Amino acid sequence: MSGIDRRTVLVAGAAAVALPGATSATPRAAASLAPRPPMGWNSWNSFATTITEAQAIETAGIMAAKLLPAGYDIFTVDIQWYDPDAKSYEYNAKPVPVIDANGRLLPAPNRFPSSAGGLGFAPLAARVHALGLRFGIHVMRGIPRLAVERNLPVLGTQYRARDVADVTSVCSWNPDMYGVDMREPGAQAYYDSVFAQYARWGVDFVKVDDMSRPYDAHAPEIEAVALAIKRSGRPMVLSLSPGETPVIRADHVRRHAEMWRIADDFWDEWPQLTAQFTRFETWSPHIGGGRWPDGDMLPLGRLALGARDSRFTPDEQRTLMTLWSIARSPLIMGGDLRHLDAATLALLTNPEVIAVNQASSDNRPHILEDGTHLWSATAPAGGHYVALFNTSGKPRRVALPLDRLGVRGMVSARDLWERTPLADMTGAVARDLPSHGASLLHVRQRS
Question: Residue 298 and residue 317: Cα distance in Å, rounded?
């Protein structure tokens, strides 16, 4: 990777968009932790709970070579890296995680050998950083049930796990943790100790699960995690999961996290994709300012422990990437990069499409006609981006009247997916689209 500026991606018209690349000297308080939607890769869609250090290192190397030049720079190890016996998408009923003397989770050494001797993820994070990537982990809300069972001390305090745990607050789908009762002394100290450890490991991105639902019940722990990150002294992008995050809590979530899920786990099924249109439309007033409604990972390429490729058709895959780009959702690839094919790579790395995700503004939907969805945004170098979607079951012409953009007369148009100019248009931006298809254009008014 020598010679590549890993914090810059070339976009349409050879303009450069600087990507976030936080260092340990960057204060967390500023929106600059995620000035643009984060881009990266996450292990869940392809490895479930099972990823090992060897697989992580191999995948990170592929990511650095093939996706980092396009701006994908966050490499994330997802759930249960601390369970020596994690097996699949199903969780062990009575897991025995690896924890330290203060009840903090540690990577399982049988899966991550470099973590032995209390080193945690520091060695793996260093290898990921050496590739020019940032290192992320997934964690569950709360304190390990095993720590509560053993009543381990909270680091630096007179309190113990049972003093701070809320054993009535449990995740409905994962057996690893109890909630932390933030009314109890020692509760914030526990979260502080956890994120201080992540800071020592060199973690740059933390996806905290079982947070956004039910939102109000977990809001004190959202605040506690945000404070713990600030106190850790290391900038870490905070991602909250799963959704749906309630839009009426937009102000609160924007104050405490850089990104948050707007849906439950998103997989490669057309009904799930069509449901995302309404969610992104609802969240559109809250896009930007370093805060990003998150549609979840991109289930593209090889998925599900290698069992299959994405069920989305090529047209549906383009629709997915177009929607995530015009709505400025984080772009987090979920497929197995060891089996990355040319078509999926081209879909993920089109620079003119990525430019819409990373550098557009005023992104907004236009609700005009059943079976279609239309979005527009302001392009940084002038003109408008327009996304046209046909969600119906048959081909049709989809059009956005130019007056919706405040434009009169004739416009030039460029197809961003094909990276080619189109004939000038008057009256409306219009394209003939296949069923479940999409088009993404850059239009400028003719003088």
Answer: 9
What letter represents residue 148's amino acid?
V
CB 89 within 8 A of CB 95: no
| In contact, 361 and 377? CB cutoff 8 Å | yes
Written as one string, the DSSP assignment of 36-76 is S--EEEESHHHHTT---HHHHHHHHHHHHHHTGGGT--EEE
- 194 neighbors 231 (Cβ within 8 angstroms): no
Provide the pLDDT confidence category of residue 57 given band limits of 50, 70 and 90.
very high
Each residue's pLDDT tens digit, 269-280: 999 999 999 999
Helix (H) or strand (E) holding 182: none
Closest CA to 78 of 52, 54, 109, 100: 52
> Cβ–Cβ contacts within 10 Å for residue 345, how many?
16
Phi-psi region of 68 (alpha: psi -120 to 50; beta: other; left: phi over 0): alpha
Q: Is pLDDT of 261 > 70?
A: yes
Widest CA span in the chain: 74
pTM score > 0.85 for this model?
yes
Q: In 10 A of CB 23, how many CB atoms?
A: 8
CA torsion sign for 202, 31, 282, 316 is negative
